[in-house]
Each structure stands twice: as C-alpha cells, then as structure tokens.
Specification:
Layout (H helix, E strand, L loop, with lengths): L6 H25 L6 H7 L4 E4 L5 E4 L1 H7 L3 H4 L4 H6 L9 H8 L3 E7 L4 E11 L5 E10 L1 H33 L3 H26 L3 E5 L5 E4 L1 H6 L4 H4 L4 H6 L9 H8 L3 E7 L9 E11 L5 E10 L1 H23 L4 E4 L10 E4 L1 H7 L3 H4 L4 H4 L8 H11 L1 E9 L5 E13 L2 E10 L1 H48 L10 H28 L3 H4 L2 H16 L2 E7 L8 H22 L3 E9 L2 E8 L6 H10 L4 H11 L3 E6 L5 E8 L5
Parallel strand pairs: 16-17
Antiparallel strand pairs: 1-2, 1-5, 3-4, 4-5, 6-7, 6-10, 8-9, 9-10, 11-12, 11-15, 13-14, 14-15, 17-18, 18-20, 19-20
Helix pairs in contact: 1-7, 18-19, 21-22, 22-24
C-alpha cells in the first residue's frame, strides 16, 4: 500500500510548483522582447505557448501546443483559441484575455481546459505596435494540475490533522476527567476485548453449522446455538457432555470420526459421515465434519473445534444427479436419431463435437473418434456452410431452433436432414445438442409432388392456351362473321321497316359485346403478349385495362427487368401472381388505389403488391380460406412455392394489405 505524503512533503511540493509558475510568468513577460532568438525561445518553452490576434485567432503555436492538441501548426492557424482548448463557440467564463482586452496589461488566471482534462495557469501578455495599438497577445499555459492536486491533498491532510487533533484533544479531555490515562486505556482495552468476544460469539451463534469446542476426551466445552437448538437444549447444558453420547447416544466415539485422526496427527482433519440416527432429526443424515486443533502460545494442543454441516440434501441431489445422468446417457445412446453435442462461440463459430451417439456414427460412416475430431462445418454440404454462423448466433438468442439443411457422410453421400438444436449451459460453458433426422425420403416425395404439380400447372396453361386459341380463332371468328352478316343483312332491301332494322342493329351490338367478352376470355386464359411484346409491356397493358374496367388506379413500375430473358415458367408465374393479386384487390380490398413494384435483385426477383384498403387479420383469413376452399391466396402461394420462392402477407384491419414475393431469377435456356 502506498504511504500518504506528509504535510511537510505536500507543502514543499506546492512551493516548488509555485516557483515553477513564477518562472513561467517571467518568461511570458519577456517573450515578446527576446530579440532575434525569440522563435528559438518560443519553441523551447516547455509549456503550451501560442500567439493570437485581438480576435482570438491563432497566429503561432510552439511544439508544446502541437503535442497537447494533436493538431499541426497549419491546422491550428486561424482557429479561435477557445474552440481548440475549450470546445466552445465563445471565450469561457474567467478567460484572462477578456480581462486583458479591458485592462490593456498582463492578466493571469487558472482555467479548466477541456481539451486536456487538466487545470492550467494561463497568462495573457499584450504586444503593442509603434502607435500603441494592440497587435498580438502571447498566451503561456502552465499545467498546474499537480499543484492543484497537491494543494487539495495538503488541504485534506490539514483537515485530517485538525480532525485528529480535535479527536485526540477530546480523548485527552475525557481521560483527564477520569482516572489516570493508563487505567482508562486498560479499561478500554478490556471493554474492546469483551466486545470482540461477544462479536465472535454472535458470529458463531449465527452460523448454520454446528460448531463446538471439545477437550482431548471429546467432552464439550462450549457449543453455538445451532448445536444446542438441534438437541432441544441450552448451550450451557451441553458443557461437560461427550459429543458422541449427547448426539447419537453412543458409549464410544463414532467410527471414522475425524477427531480420532486429529488426535493422532495434530492436524486439521475432515470426513463425510453417515449417521443412521441423530438426536432431534428423523431419518438418516450425512455430515461434512472438520476437526481443527487449537494450540496455545507454546504450540501445544489444548482443545479442538468441531464444525459439522448437514449435507443430506446435497447427497440426495448428487445421487439423483447420478441417476439422471445415467438415464440421460441411456436415452442419448438409444435414440433413433443421430445426436451431436458441441460448444459454440457467440460470434457464430461452432466448436468440434464433444459427444456423439452410436446412431450418428452408423449414419455417417465414421468411428466415434473420427467424429470427435470434426465440427458441424465438416459434415455440412459446401453450399450450406454459409448459413451455420447465422444459425449459431440465432441459437444464442432463441435457445431452440429447427431448420433443414444437407449433410455429407464419409462416403460423400448427401443426406437431407432436419435438425432440432437446443442451447444450454453445461458446467459454465454454452453447449448445443442437436438431434438430426434424415428427411431424404420426404424430400424426394416433396420433389415428386412439386414436379407433378408443375406438370399439372403446365398442362393447365397448355389447356388454357388451346382454349384461348379456339375461342379466338373459332368462336371469335364465327361470332364476328355473324355480326358482319347482320350488319349487311338489309343492304339490298331498302323497304325493310325501321323497327326491324333497329332490332337487327341491337343484335349486332350484342354480338360486338360478345366478341369483346370472348377476346377478354382468350386474353386472360393465355396472354399472347408474353411472347410478342414481352412480360413488362404485357403487365403494363393488363394493369391499364384493369384500371379502366374497375376504376381502380394501378401504380405499376419495374426496375432492372427489361434486360432479363426469363424462362416461360417464370414469366407466366409473375403474370398470374399479379393477375390474381389484382383480382383479390377488386373483390376484397374496397380501395381505389393499388401499388405494384417488380424489381430484379439478382439472384431473385422481388414483387410487391400493396393496397390501402380495409385489410384483414392474416391468420384468421388464412384459416377461413382453408375451410371455405378459397383458392385466390392459396393459388398464389402454391405458384410461388413451385418456382422455389417465398411469399409473405402483411395486413391489419383498416391498415391495408401488402403481399411480398421473392422468386428465383431463372433465365431462358
């Protein structure tokens, strides 16, 4: 421990600092008249010294200023001194230069300098030109932080000394009012000793352990309250009793008692003892007992202290833990799924496996020793490794995660797996146990279903195309021919009554509407523009026609899509998604505006359909749609899934609806 300086040492240090300050005052007064060597002296001054104009702007600074501020002379030049040293936009309170500008002669003052975190004695010396006008001001800043600290320490030391003098004077006055000083000190010592003994006794009585002092014959000399209460006696009633007789009803010391060994060795001895019966306690108990020899000034053992702690609950917990570990080990080894244990790091690095079960070894073709030299990175498929760090970090947040990935066995066979990982603390170290389930058969079945569904959708599209062609080329043309026939039916018959002509004209208009309906049906079944004018122009035309027919403003825009040559499946999928999205807005949104954004963000295409309509509760609506067999949103989800994309719906009542879709960017082969 460092000794505090004495008052004399502190006063000497203050005197030295005051002399140093006085010296720098003289330096400041003479700096501007130093002659040709002024620059050398200016730079040699060991304290921050700088020159400013009457507007506080820096004109020059010595090396000490550059060292303190960390700025070059070019960076300092022209800046306000209070901006550099005080980080303010105006001179601070107590600035000696403000007083100097008013008085016209040297001014000094102590200031707290924010730039250095210290206290400086700042002198401001005016420099006048031949006409008597103020030209420059020389600043010398002397670091008096240590001086201030020394003065503060000196003040505290003096205060402490004065307090000690007062206390000592009070003690002497009290002593003078009593008997002789020696008797008073002895009385105080005796009182302190009694208090010390009482404090020790209070500590012993407050202990949860049974503490007792016994002689060499194992007779109790004294015992704490915990010992007495357990036996339903007072501490003084235990004095003179043999410990083994009063506690367990024996006529001889207990086998394995640590005191028997301490009597032989003269050292501290310990033992865990099983007590089938114990006074004041029902059932068997376990005790952790320490026996400590007490020696006199000559080093001879006079008595022994016995400290006994009831560890019955601890022993039961340990036994239960051993049984639990046995069952856990059994469940771990007999699991049908591979199990892996490793210690991850919070920054996302998985550790090497510290335990694996036999099923893992069989599934992956490694021996247990080989697997324990690997980590989750080593058995993951190369394209899946980039996700491992993110999942490890997620584990530290959520503790439990379930995800799908692909593993590679020793024979290079790829395995699709579903992993359930749980993070827990094991002996103060974060630990992950992962159950791995082979889902390869399920994945193959899902892939088969996806393939068949894609083929089904392709068949639907082909059928739509066939129907579209038939509607357009056959039905549409036949109706057009009928309309032309009606329009020319009475060209050579001027005598036809006007009523008949009007009726035929009405039929012609009906045929015209039918032609438009057939054309729209053919177009909706298979928009020919996808091949002729491209996806973007077809979508733009569809949005314009939808807006015109339904009086709903459609704000459609795209970015980065024009240069993409997408395959036919992706083109028709995007078209159908926007078509179905607009139909849903028309049927359910009750709004006059919808926004559609289509953006190419390689390797994905992002689609957003957003309206400001009445919205809905997503979970409730999806359940209702499932029960009512509604196909709108469900069809959109299936189309997105079939091309390997993702779809998310965000909506709340009275807050509109937003559909976010992400599909892979598959180019034309």
């Amino acid at each position: 421990m460092v000794n505090k300086p004495t008052c004399e040492e502190l006063e000497q240090r203050v005197t030295e600092l005051e002399k140093e300050v006085a010296m720098h005052k003289r330096t400041g007064k003479n700096l501007h008249s130093a002659g040709p060597d002024a620059e050398s002296i200016f730079q040699a001054v060991g304290h921050p010294t700088f020159i400013v104009d009457p507007e506080y702007q820096m004109l020059a600074a010595n090396r000490a200023v550059i060292k303190v501020t960390g700025l070059s002379e070019e960076e300092l030049h022209g800046k306000k001194c209070y901006q550099i040293f005080h980080h303010s936009e105006a001179p601070p309170e107590g600035c000696p230069m403000k007083r100097m500008l008013a008085s016209g002669h040297l001014e000094m003052g102590e200031m707290e300098v924010e730039a250095t975190g210290g206290t400086f004695l700042v002198s401001c010396t005016p420099v006048f030109d031949e006409t008597g006008s103020l030209q420059q001001v020389i600043h010398i800043a002397t670091d008096v932080t240590q001086k201030k600290m020394a003065e503060e320490a000196l003040r505290k030391a003096r205060d402490e000394l004065e307090q000690q003098v007062k206390e000592r004077t009070a003690e002497l006055c009290t002593a003078n009012l009593q008997l002789k000083a020696e008797l008073e000190e002895r009385k105080q010592a005796e009182e302190a000793l009694r208090e010390n003994e009482a404090e020790k006794r209070a500590i012993l009585d407050a202990s949860i352990d049974r503490i007792r002092c016994v002689d060499k014959d194992m007779k109790i000399i004294w015992a704490n309250k915990t010992t007495a209460i357990a036996t339903a006696l007072f501490p003084e009633d235990l004095a003179g009793e043999f410990c083994y007789r009063i506690f367990v009803g024996r006529d001889t010391p207990c086998e394995g008692c640590p005191m028997l060994k301490a009597l032989e060795t003269g050292e501290i001895e310990s033992a865990v003892m099983h007590k089938p019966t114990m006074r004041g306690i029902q059932g068997e108990t376990f005790w952790n007992i320490h026996c400590v020899p007490l020696k006199n000034e000559s080093g001879d053992i006079e008595n022994y202290v016995q400290i006994a702690r009831n560890i019955t609950e601890q022993k039961k917990a340990e036994d239960a833990l051993r049984k639990s570990e046995k069952w856990s080990r059994l469940l771990f080894d007999k699991s049908n799924d591979p199990l892996f244990v490793h210690h991850p790091k919070p920054e996302g690095v998985p550790g090497k496996f510290v335990e694996v079960n036999d099923v893992a070894c069989e599934k992956y073709g490694y021996t247990k020793e080989e697997l324990l030299r690997l980590s989750p990175l080593d058995i993951s498929a190369p394209e899946m490794r980039q996700n491992i760090a993110l999942r490890v970090k997620k584990l530290f947040t959520k503790k439990d995660i379930i995800f799908e990935t692909k593993h590679v066995a020793k024979d290079r066979q790829r395995i699709s797996v579903e992993i359930s990982s749980h993070l827990f603390d094991l002996e103060g170290q974060p630990t992950v146990i992962s159950a791995v389930r082979d889902i390869s058969p399920r994945k193959r079945a899902e892939e088969r279903v996806r393939f068949l569904t894609q083929e089904l959708i392709r068949a639907h599209e082909n059928e739509r195309q066939t129907i579209s062609h038939e509607l357009h080329d056959l039905v549409g043309q036949d109706i057009s021919a009928l309309k032309i026939s009606l329009d020319t039916l009475f060209d050579d018959q001027p005598e036809i009554p006007p009523g008949t002509r009007q009726r035929v004209a009405e039929l012609s208009r009906m045929f015209e509407k039918t032609i438009m309906t057939v054309r729209d049906m053919a177009y909706n079944l298979r928009p020919v523009g996808l091949k002729q004018v491209g996806l973007i122009e077809t979508l733009r035309q569809h949005c314009e026609e939808f807006s015109t027919k339904n009086r709903i403003e459609v704000d459609f825009s795209c970015a980065g899509m024009e240069s993409l040559e997408l395959d036919s499946d992706t083109r028709i999928t995007l078209y159908r998604l926007i078509q179905e999205g607009l139909n849903n807005v028309k049927k359910h949104a009750d709004t006059g505006h919808v926004t559609i954004r289509l953006v190419a963000s390689f390797p994905h295409i992002l689609l957003r359909i957003e309206d400001n309509g009445k919205g809905f509760d997503v979970q409730t609506r999806m359940v209702a749609a499932e029960n009512e067999r509604r196909m709108g949103v469900r069809t959109m989800e299936e189309r997105v899934m079939l091309v390997g994309g993702m779809m998310k719906i965000e909506s709340r009542p009275a807050q509109g609806t937003k559909i976010l879709i992400e599909v892979p960017c598959k180019k034309k082969k």
